[in-house]
Every structure is written in structure tokens, then in C-alpha cells.
Amino acid sequence: MEKHKDSFSELEEIGIGSKFKEELCRMLESTQLFRGFARPDIEFIVDYTHAYRAPVGVALFREGGKDKHLAFIVKGKVNILKEFGFSKEKHIATARSGSCLGEISIVDDFPHSATARIVEEAEVIILTKRNLLRITEESAALGIRILWRLAWQLSARLRKTSGVLAEHL
Known about the structure:
With 169 residues, this protein is an alpha+beta fold. Helices cover 38% and strands 30% of the residues. The chain has helices at residues 18-29, 39-46, 103-108, 129-138, 140-168; strands at 12-13, 50-54, 59-61, 69-84, 88-95, 100-101, 115-128. Strand 4 and strand 5 (88-95) form a beta hairpin. It starts with 11 loop residues before the first strand and ends with a helix.
């Protein structure tokens, strides 16, 4: 499993080892992306993830950042912010428990399109792109299922954004 580097230096890793695995499975099952996945699949996936406690003010990723990971919000709230002008940010959405963030840059390999900042102490599960690729290599069917779920989520967000845009035209 890939260990995390400086991009997670402000996060506190919570729980490690086999005793924590059951809790990590429950945490992952609580996310929208993995609802309905069979327990053996969840157990396989958690071997490639880490859980963290994130204090208020920490950015899970920054607009323009090139780190590649998915963040699953298990507890807490995260504001999604878009930069505009000089050092100004505009709030565009709030992610809550069950949400997945970072999927656009996982898929397209471009820098993050927004900043995700913790606004209520959070617990998050991180899955790096490298580990997602490892899951896909070791269990192609499971990897494809995860990618289909990510595609579904991206499609839902695009539809919502298109609706908002249409209202503003």
C-alpha cells in the first residue's frame, strides 16, 4: 500500500491495523460511492485506503494542485471553493458525510479544479490514484465497478451544474 506524503501532513491518521479494519469498513460503507458493495469488496478496498481526522481550515486539496486522490467524507463538512481575482475564493458547494471529492482529477489527470477546505472537523478516507490503479490491476471487476460509480457521480454533478447554468442564462 502506498504511504502518503506531505499532502496529508496536516491530517491526523486514525486507526491502523486489523483491529481498525472493521471500523474502516463501516466508514467506507457509509459513503455514497460504496453503498451496495458486497462486504468482501469493501474489505478488499480498505486495504488500499487510510482514514484521517481533519481539523477545521485544512485543505484536502487545493485548486491547481496536482496530487491525485479521492477523499471520502465520513463525518464533517467540507466547502468547495473556486479562486477568483487576487487571493479571493468563492464558495460553490458544501460536501457532507457520505460525499466523495477529487474524482475529476483522478479521471482526467489535470490539476484540481477547486479547493476543498474543512469547515467542520471531519473524518475522511483517502484513496490515492496509485492505489485505485492497484485495485484495478488486482481485481479488474471491482476496479471497473468503482470506475463506473465514479462516472455516474461525475455525470450527476454535470447534470446539476448544467441545470444551474441554464437558470443563470
